[in-house]
Amino acid sequence: TRVLVLNGPNLGRLGVREPEVYGSATLADLERAASGWGAALDLEVEVRQTDDEAEIIGWIHEAVDARAHVVLNPAAFTHYSYALRDAAAQITTAGLLLVEVHLSNPAAREEFRHVSVVGPVATGTIAGFGFDSYRLGLEAIAVRLRG
Ligand code: DQA
């Protein structure tokens, strides 16, 4: 079973960016960790990151067409990208799973982070557990697929 783990803007800066919020580990560390978790769960995991809204939307279309499930950290797009939301809606309406994840807990941060325009079209959301948000997201997919 294929799972795309898609990351939005500024997540390529993990390790350098606001380490007090996002930790000192890098995107490469996340890639390694996620592949390991995927292998243990019998999921074929591919991690990608982009700062480009069009690119992440294209990857979501690709997931729908390839019938891959998605773990998505939309980063700041979370809070305002209706284009990403409309793309994301196609995942769940296609009968695929979409787990929205966040490293931090946006509900505990600035007001503008309290709204997710992606959340309403996701299967579910996991936030606030650092890299473990991704691990839990992959586990949620594996558990749901096992029925
Ligand atoms: C984030 C939370 C967002 O509010 C922020 O814009 C990010 C990262 C997180 O993983 O905690 O870039 O999605």
TrEMBL record:
GO molecular function, one term: 3-dehydroquinate dehydratase activity
Function: Catalyzes a trans-dehydration via an enolate intermediate.
Recorded family membership: Belongs to the type-II 3-dehydroquinase family.
InterPro entries: DHquinase_II (IPR001874), DHquinase_II_CS (IPR018509), DHquinase_II_sf (IPR036441)
Chain sites annotated for binding substrate: 73, 79, 86, 103-104, 113
NCBIfam families: aroQ, PRK05395.1-2, PRK05395.1-3, PRK05395.1-4
Active-site residues annotated for this sequence: 22, 102
Feature type site, description Transition state stabilizer: 17
PROSITE patterns in the record: DEHYDROQUINASE_II
Subunit-level organization: Homododecamer.
Pfam families assigned to the protein according to its UniProt record, in alphabetical order: DHquinase_II (PF01220)
Origin species: Actinotalea ferrariae CF5-4
EC class name: lyase
Keyword tags: Amino-acid biosynthesis, Aromatic amino acid biosynthesis, Lyase
Catalytic activity: 3-dehydroquinate = 3-dehydroshikimate + H2O
Any single biological process term in GO: amino acid biosynthetic process
Associated pathway: Metabolic intermediate biosynthesis; chorismate biosynthesis; chorismate from D-erythrose 4-phosphate and phosphoenolpyruvate: step 3/7
Keyword presence, Lyase: yes
Keyword Phosphoprotein among record annotations: no
EC number: 4.2.1.10
Protein name (database record): 3-dehydroquinate dehydratase
